[in-house]
Specification:
The chain is of the alpha/beta class. It has 25 helices and 30 strands. The model has no long low-confidence stretch (mean pLDDT 97). Bound molecules: ligand MGD (2 copies) and molybdenum atom. One ligand MGD binds next to strand 24.
């Protein structure tokens, strides 16, 4: 009988105990304090010991031969040559030095967007920034794919983007005061399996259950009934994708024309409401944004919108929006419009009232938790000061030297020669992957640290094998969760893999700046340092925090639930003079003079209905009549664990599923389980049809995350929807991804089906 060992650990999908036997991970047992552990944990043993793990450093054959003059379009098709660490590190070090000296620090792209893993010390993206910053800097990425439009819009409107990070009126306040809970984008519990930084406690299901028992009325507005959680007696209102703004404007129209709005609140706490009201009433452009007007856009019957507005005005109402609403072309508008709607209702800053974001997007949103820090590792400062908006990566690589606008400023795209990526998968996260492939062929050198042969690792020139969290010691936690977790090393490093920290330490030493990178600390000293800062912060705020050894032994640290409810903008509500918002006027800006001064026709100075590039009312919908919604996958995190047991068993014929309405399936001769071709002018993928009465006609829904598997002719064989999505910024104001604005059509797959090759290791010579 092999000896069984148990180690506390943490992932973005939850805390767990790693059960190790005979040097192998046997199981991940959920953390005892977690009331709703995620089944995704089951995929871990298979992934940790997967044949897809990268064993040794590897260099693309053509690059090893020709270095910077190699043919970049061979990335992804040429074999790799396995080399020793000494050789690999020397190549990386020489190449960084060459590019820095020949082309400058701003010729290195180090944005390295991606979630990496939960531990904060060994967080690959943070370490990449820390390493490149200490060596002279690089070009970074501003914002994120999650809520990039909100991040750059909300400061103009409410002076902060904190509410989109999860700092919203908490569930205690909702349970006690809210009567009507309106959820644009719904409350898919699938998404609440995840917390960035890791959850000790999956709190959302418990709070939803308490809210249900409190008799709160739930309304879910979404293109799919699947956004109503099982067991929640919520009313589902189907809506066309990307048209929520029209519905919100119509609700304001009802409030105004029936004098149900809070005229006092919009006068004392808002600026520019009157100009917005003129627009809504049609005084500005001759079109009243009435319920009848909106019904023609969003497909919701006029009476339904009018009645919902009346009901919201008569009881305590919280209106929340998933982050997906703003991950769309013109994604600023629904977020600004919901604030205007909440302002017209006059309940902002009252217990259980106002607006919120993200309840259906991530675990822990609205979870009552004291406002003290979570563990953190510092990335240092970027000496170049240069960055691009996060999702403009392909634009940058394709158009060096060309100007772009962003949040009131003009800049030009840098000329990138070297791309360095660790902890992200751009061939998962970016839109229009066939375009990204063209852009990706342009840099001279691409370096990637990965643990698995992901689509991005396969498309690198130099691949360095990284350990997983179970192969090192770490500390993790999130600002949305009351637990901080010790993460004990459970396994030796896989094959020849090394920790990202050690890879960077060695490279920094070769370039003569090891001390700047490590600050003289090794893994164990860093863990004590990070914990020490956290503990000092907690003690200052009046909470217990034992010494490091006691924490490490116990495996976790827990914050008490606060006794007082948190209400967003409570102080501002009570006294707007004494507690102004951080906006130019100190009030909620329903009209923004600052945005007006930018002069962007794609982001007007007040919330407005601005048509997205692609939606069901666009001219393009005649050719491509289905709106493709790409959601977060329920069986994994992004592309992570796609080859794991939970994800693989959910595939049909090895492909990702596309959910469609009965009407759209029948009219195309498609039956449940059929393989289909989902396509538009940008590309195509193979998926398996799931026909459902809960999907609105005209809508097709696919999860992201299937490893990109192109056949060389713009067809993805595995079901990666990002071959279909559009790669344009939301607007010049926020330049965020527009992933959720894409039109497609679907046909039954005819003839032979090409096999999926996403989970094959590239040829190694
Ligand atoms: N169409 C469409 N596209 C989308 C979205 C959408 O809604 N629709 N959503 C977007 C959003 S919100 C996001 S956040 C992005 C997510 O995009 P990403 O964050 O890029 O996706 P992940 O699959 O989490 O990629 C993380 C990678 O890091 C690797 N990794 C994990 N731990 C380590 C480590 O310790 N060291 C190293 N070196 N590597 C490690 C993993 O193996 C994985 O390949 O996708 C975006 N893309
Ligand atoms: N299991 C799992 N959970 C995750 C993740 C994961 O990969 N796996 N990723 C995490 C990350 S990084 C992020 S950023 C969040 C993202 O959180 P979100 O962006 O909120 O997640 P989505 O699943 O894209 O969208 C939520 C719901 O919005 C609906 N929806 C889409 N478009 C529209 C629209 O135009 N109008 C309306 N009314 N509804 C619409 C969809 O039906 C969908 O189910 O999820 C997190 N949670
Ligand atoms: Mo995200």
């Amino acid at each position: 009988m092999p000896e069984t060992q148990r180690f506390p650990s943490l992932s973005h999908w939850g805390a767990f105990t790693a059960v190790v036997e005979g040097g192998r991970l046997r199981a991940c047992e959920p953390f005892p304090h977690d009331p709703a552990p995620s089944p995704i944990l089951r995929s871990m043993p298979g992934m940790i010991h997967s044949p897809l793990r990268i064993a040794r450093p590897a260099v693309r054959q053509g690059w090893l031969r020709d270095r910077a003059r190699s043919d970049g379009s061979a990335r992804g098709s040429e074999p790799f040559v396995e080399v020793d660490w000494d050789v690999a590190l020397k190549l990386v070090s020489e190449e960084l030095a060459r590019v820095r000296s020949q082309h400058g620090d701003a010729a290195i792209f180090g944005g390295s967007y991606g979630w990496s893993s939960a531990g904060r010390l060994h967080h690959a993206r943070t370490l990449t920034h820390r390493f490149l910053n200490a060596g002279g800097g690089c070009v970074m990425q501003a914002g994120n794919y999650s809520w990039g439009a909100a991040q750059f819009l909300l400061p103009h409107v409410i002076g902060t983007y904190a509410p989109v990070t999860g700092r919203v009126t908490d569930w205690k306040s909702v349970e006690a005061h809210t009567r009507l809970f309106i959820a644009f984008g719904g409350l898919p519990l699938r998404n609440t399996q995840i917390t960035s930084g890791g959850a000790g406690e999956h709190s959302t299901p418990r709070w939803l259950e308490r809210a249900r028992r409190a008799g709160i009325e739930f309304v879910v507005i979404s293109p799919t009934q699947a956004d109503v959680p099982d067991g929640l007696p919520a009313r589902w209102i189907p809506i066309r994708p990307n048209t929520d703004t029209a519905m919100m404007l119509a609700m304001v129209h009802t409030l105004l024309t029936e004098q149900r709005h809070d005229a006092g609140f919009v006068r004392t706490h808002c600026t520019g409401f009157d100009r917005f009201a003129d627009y809504v009433l049609g005084k500005a452009d001759g079109t009243a944004k009435s319920a009848e007007w909106a019904a023609g856009i969003c497909g919701v019957p006029a009476d339904v919108m009018r009645e919902l507005a009346r009901r919201a005005a008569s009881v305590r109402t919280l209106i929340t929006c998933t982050w997906s609403l703003q991950r769309a072309h013109r994604g600023e508008q629904p977020y600004w419009a919901v604030i205007a709607l909440a302002a017209a209702l006059g309940q902002v800053g009252l217990p259980g009232g106002g607006f919120a974001f993200g309840h259906g997007s991530m675990n822990g949103v609205g979870n009552p938790r004291p406002g003290v820090a979570a563990p953190e590792m510092s990335a240092g400062r970027n000496p170049t000061g240069r960055s691009i908006p996060v999702a403009r990566i392909a634009d940058m690589l394709l158009h060096p030297g060309e100007p772009f606008e962003f949040n009131g400023k003009r800049d030009t795209y840098p000329d990138i020669r070297l791309v360095y990526w660790a902890g992200g998968n751009p061939f998962h996260h970016h839109q229009d992957l066939n375009r990204l492939m063209r852009a990706w062929s342009r840099p001279e050198t691409i370096i990637v640290h990965e643990s698995w042969w992901t689509p991005t690792a396969r498309r690198a020139d130099i691949v360095l094998p990284a350990t997983t969290t179970l192969e090192r010691n770490d500390i993790g936690g999130s600002s949305r969760d009351r637990f901080v977790l010790a993460m004990h090393q459970a396994l030796p490093p896989h094959a020849h893999s090394r920790n990202d920290f050690d890879i960077y330490r060695e490279l920094a030493a070769m370039a003569g700046y090891e001390a700047a990178f490590t600050e003289g600390r090794d893994e164990s000293q860093w863990l004590r340092h990070i914990y020490g800062e956290l503990a000092a912060n907690w003690r200052e705020a009046g909470f217990d925090a034992p010494d490091f050894e006691a924490f490490w032994q116990a495996g976790f640290l827990e914050l008490p639930e606060p006794s007082r409810e948190f209400v967003l903008f409570e102080d501002f509500r009570r006294d707007p003079q004494a507690h102004p918002l951080q906006t130019p006027s100190g009030k909620i800006e329903i009209y923004s003079e600052r945005i007006a001064a930018f002069g962007y026709d794609d982001c007007p100075p007040h919330p407005a209905w601005v048509e997205p590039v692609e939606w069901l009312g666009a001219a393009a919908s005649a050719r491509y009549p289905l709106h493709l919604v790409t959601s977060q996958p329920g069986d994994k995190l992004h592309s992570q664990l796609d080859a794991g047991e939970v994800s693989v068993s959910a595939k049909i014929h090895g492909r990702e599923r596309v959910h469609m309405s009965e009407q759209d399936a029948v009219s195309r001769g498609i039956a449940n389980g059929d393989l289909v071709r989902v396509f538009n002018d940008r590309g195509a993928c193979i998926a398996a049809a799931v026909v459902s009465a809960g999907v609105m006609p005209g809508v097709a829904i696919m999860s992201t995350g299937a490893w990109f598997d192109p056949d060389g002719a713009a067809l993805d064989r595995h079901g990666n929807p990002n071959v279909l999505t559009v790669d344009v910024g939301t607007s010049r104001l926020t330049q965020a991804p527009s992933a959720l604005s894409a039109l497609v059509d679907i046909r039954k797959w005819e003839g032979e089906v090409p096999p999926v090759r996403a989970f094959e290791v590239p040829q190694l010579v």
